[in-house]
Structures are given as structure tokens and as C-alpha cells.
Amino acid sequence: MYKYKVLKVYMMVGLPDEREEDLEELGRFSLELGVIHPTALGIAPFVPKFNTPMIGSGFAGIKVVEKRLKYLQKDLRGRVDVRATSARWAYRLNRLLRSEIRGYSVGK
Questions:
Q1: In a domain, 20, yes or no
Q2: How many domains does the chain have?
Q3: DSSP 20-83
Q4: Exposed site from 47, 55, 69, 76, fewest CB < 10 Å?
Q5: Cα dist. 19→95, 98, 106 in Å?
Q6: Is the sign of the CA dihedral 102, 95, 83, 80 positive or negative?
Q7: Between the CA of residue 62 and those of 22, 85, 103, what are the distances in Å?
Q8: What is the pLDDT of residue 99?
Q9: With a threshold of 0.85, does the pTM exceed it?
Q10: 16, 12, 10: which is closest to 60 by C-alpha?
């Protein structure tokens, strides 16, 4: 049997078709896991990447992502450890990737 102190679950927010109900479900799921075992929820904002089916999708926006992250942090506070990547950092990554797509290679 494996012994671990915290169950780490990695999720994304800000997907193109994401709805409020999806965040509510993620919150419920995380709470159910937290009852069984201490849980850390790692959340990264969705950023479309090269060579994936989602490359044509856009970034949800800093305000939208921050609102969703705050909702989860508030909903899960004290019961599940929420570790979120910054929405601003995700926006910068999105801009960098978009410049690469357009042929403006950064770092060459």
C-alpha cells in the first residue's frame, strides 16, 4: 500500500465551453475527495498549446480566470488546499505562444 500525505489533483479553468455548473461540480468533487483524504487542488488557467486540438481556442481573459479561481478558493477554503497558477502569468504565456504562432519567434 502506498503512503502519501496529500492527494494532488490537477485541473484547468477557463476552457472555452466551461460553465458555472462545471466549477460547482469541481468544487463538490474536491470536497468529496477531501473527506476521504487530505487533498490539494492544483489549478492552471487554460492556455491553448501547439499541436493540440485546442490551439485555435482563445484565452478566457485575466478577469474571467481570476473570478473562477476566487470562486473555487472561497468555496473550498479550509477544506481543500487550492494551489492556483496566476491568471496574469497564464495571460503572458498565451501572448508568448500567440507570437510564436504568428511567426515571431521569441528567443532566436
A1: yes
A2: 1
A3: HHHHHHHHHHHHHHHHHS-EEEEEEE----TTSTTTTPPP--HHHHHHHHHHHHHHHTTTSEEE
A4: 55
A5: 24, 25, 34
A6: negative
A7: 19, 12, 24
A8: 79
A9: no
A10: 16
